[in-house]
TrEMBL record:
It comes from Arthrobotrys oligospora (strain ATCC 24927 / CBS 115.81 / DSM 1491) (Nematode-trapping fungus). GO terms for cellular component: peroxisomal membrane. The keyword Membrane applies. GO terms for biological process: peroxisome fission. Keywords: Membrane, Peroxisome, Peroxisome biogenesis. This is Peroxisomal membrane protein PMP27.
Length: 237
């Protein structure tokens, strides 16, 4: 009876559906990767033995490699998204070009990251892998800057629209509810991007991110991963 209750429980069905998607598996692996990154640093700072730290360090590296392989080919999707965003006519120009910049930044990052995987896995050795990795992180950083700018601009527009509705009759309450919902979604995306930008920023040791440490970056990556898991979970509902 207990087995049947678990087998047919809607949460279990939802979990299986979540794990059956590439997005769901990637977000879950990312969450575990960054939790391990944080714990690896935390345990090291607390003076724990290398034997205790080693499993978390291995998870961080191996899950990172696994996710690199899972992302191979995803750059094509980003290039297509950039093209579609550029062709969009009925969109605010600021949001349009921010979307183009975001997708091109991600496309450049994913392209170079896939090439870097060949070197990291030992399939094909590259002359200067550090330079390739740095360039990939610059693309990622640029894409995140465009995404953050887009979110900030969108929140400003939502606030302006919300203020104008407050001066009108209650008949606009449905639109106001939609604005609140949109505002919440944009704020989540903004928080995720702010957390994520610490990762390439720290790797590049520029723009003031050199003052961070691996533990902070691991914690920031954990927060953005939780938000990513929640979004992927909702998509498979």
């Amino acid at each position: 009876m207990v087995a049947d209750a678990l087998t047919y429980h809607p949460t279990i069905s939802h979990l299986l559906k979540f794990l059956s998607t590439t997005l769901g598996r990637d977000k879950l692996l990312r969450l575990i990767q960054y939790i391990s990154r944080f714990l690896s640093f935390y345990l090291y700072r607390k003076g724990y033995s290398p034997a205790i730290i080693a499993p978390f360090d291995a998870i961080k590296k191996q899950f990172g490699m696994t996710r690199k392989l899972m992302r191979v080919g995803k750059n094509v999707e980003s290039f297509k998204s950039a093209s579609l965003a550029y062709d969009e006519k009925a969109v605010d120009p600021v949001l349009k070009y921010a979307a183009v910049g975001r997708h091109l930044g991600y496309a450049g990052y994913l392209t170079l990251d896939s090439i870097h995987y060949l070197d990291s896995s030992g399939i094909f050795k590259i002359t200067n892998p550090k330079r390739l990795s740095d360039t990939a992180n610059k693309f990622w950083f640029t894409g995140l800057v465009f995404s953050i700018a887009s979110s900030v601009y969108t929140l400003k527009r939502i606030a302006e629209r919300h203020a104008s509705l407050n001066k009108q009759e209650a008949e606009h309450s449905l639109e106001e509810k939609k604005l609140v919902k949109d505002q919440k979604a944009v704020k989540k995306q903004l928080l995720s991007d702010i957390c994520d930008i610490t990762i390439p920023g720290y790797a590049l040791s520029t723009y003031g991110f050199n003052n961070l440490d691996d533990g902070f970056v691991g914690l920031a990556g954990t927060v953005s991963s939780v938000l990513g898991c929640m979004a992927a979970w909702d998509k498979t509902a």
